[in-house]
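All the exercises in this workshop are built on plain-text protein records. A learned vocabulary of local backbone shapes supplies the integers on the structure line. Once this layout is familiar, the rest of the handout is easier to follow. An example says more than a description, so a record of this kind follows:
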Amino acid sequence: MADPRALPNIPALEPKFAAAEPNDGAVTREAPPSNVGELPLPYEPWRGTGFAPPPPAPHTTGSDVPAPLARPLEHARRPFEVSAALATFLPSCGSGSLDDRGCLTVGPGAGIELALLYRAHAFFAFGAEAAVSGFGDGAHGVLSKAGGGARFLGVAGRVYFADQGAWDPYLALTLGAGTLELRGTAPQARVATTGFGARVAGGLDYVLGSRLRVGPAASFSHWIAWSEQACASDICADAPAVYGRLLGFATLGLRVSGSFGDTL
């Protein structure tokens, strides 16, 4: 609505002298006009029927342009990981209390590695890891257990070096326990070494999709034995190894990993 006309802020003067007698010759004074003392408005009243268009936007330079929106992560990681690897196991064998003749026939074997991890952060995960394998000997292949075998179970921690992208390299440390078995020694037919084990591993995964990764992996494990058992036929006794003992193993294989859960 248009602004109303402002009222005068100074009252009009009123006559203060009464009319004189006609015979005394006095002159009466007239009151000033009513608009005396009215101040001008500080603005012109708006009498339009609609709003005025907005003013044009000021010209902006490159530094005034707002930053673009953040892009989503490429191949974002997920919190739960299940992986399996088919690997070649290379035994590490050392001398017993007498010599290392039992190590002359043991050879590489094949086995599997399993891991269940929770990726609490894009760069760190922890969980459980297991490895089972057999070792060959000179007369049998790598898929046999003629030369012995290994079993290992532990708690793993893994550090990653990328939170996005197609490549996902990592390093891992596993602490646990297990048993290494060396067969074919004479006169001892079998020597089992049980103890604590530590495993250092590394790999490079390639992200095939949102939930699947595949890549090579390598590791090395070493045992600190708390007991040794020597067996001849079906008779076993706790005794130190005489003609050699397995100390650990190294692996080289191909790992396939599946990821689940919401993206990190």
Notes: The radius of gyration is 47 Å. The mean pLDDT is 82.
